[in-house]
User: Fold Adenylate kinase from Cryobacterium luteum.
Amino acid sequence: MTRLLLIGPPGAGKGTQAERLALAFNVPAISTGDIFRYNVTNNTPLGLEVKSFMDAGAYVPDSLTNAIVADRLKEADAASGFLLDGYPRTTDQVAELDRLLVAEGTQLDVVVLITADTDEVVARLLKRAAEQGRADDTAEVIRHRLDVYAEQTAPLIDVYSTRGVVVTIDGLGAVEAVTDRILAALAERGLRASTTTL
Ligand code: ADP
Assistant:
């Protein structure tokens, strides 16, 4: 049973590392950003509701986000562990996740904080904009997303640090090197991956 959470600024590499860690620990990677994007692409009612927030680089309202995650965590594949990427992002979402975990009689094992300085993340996001054309990767929206992160999400690091569950990982360097750092830090906490050949 491995329950992990990835936190870090936009562009820190959470999504990339989430996929790799999910494979290593054999748990589903649950990304609220991916869930929302999927719904926008497919023009679902949820997609129509969240599109304007996402395009503006604003957070989707907590009520909506919390409901999506509560549903997703009830699915069978999450019963034996999960890796949350991009949730929680607000103190309200922390409270909801706490409530969900208490109801299940479980708790988070580790919160992985991936760091990268602002120049680096802006450069990465602009590169991704050129390659993938994500609607929220324009220079102006990126700046806004970084501000929202600093205001609403960075404070969560203190909340989880107080609980003694945070490991901080330098997100600079090759993808594989960052994964290795995370795996080593998790192993130190007694969390061993089922496979390290990624
Ligand atoms: P990034 O990590 O690059 O900011 P994500 O793919 O995680 O990108 O999220 C993209 C967008 O999806 C966010 O800017 C926000 O609009 C929405 N979103 C994702 N997760 C949450 C969340 N937990 N709470 C509110 N909005 C969210």
User: Anything to note?
Assistant: The helical segments are 14-25, 32-41, 45-55, 62-74, 91-104, 118-132, 139-162, 175-188.
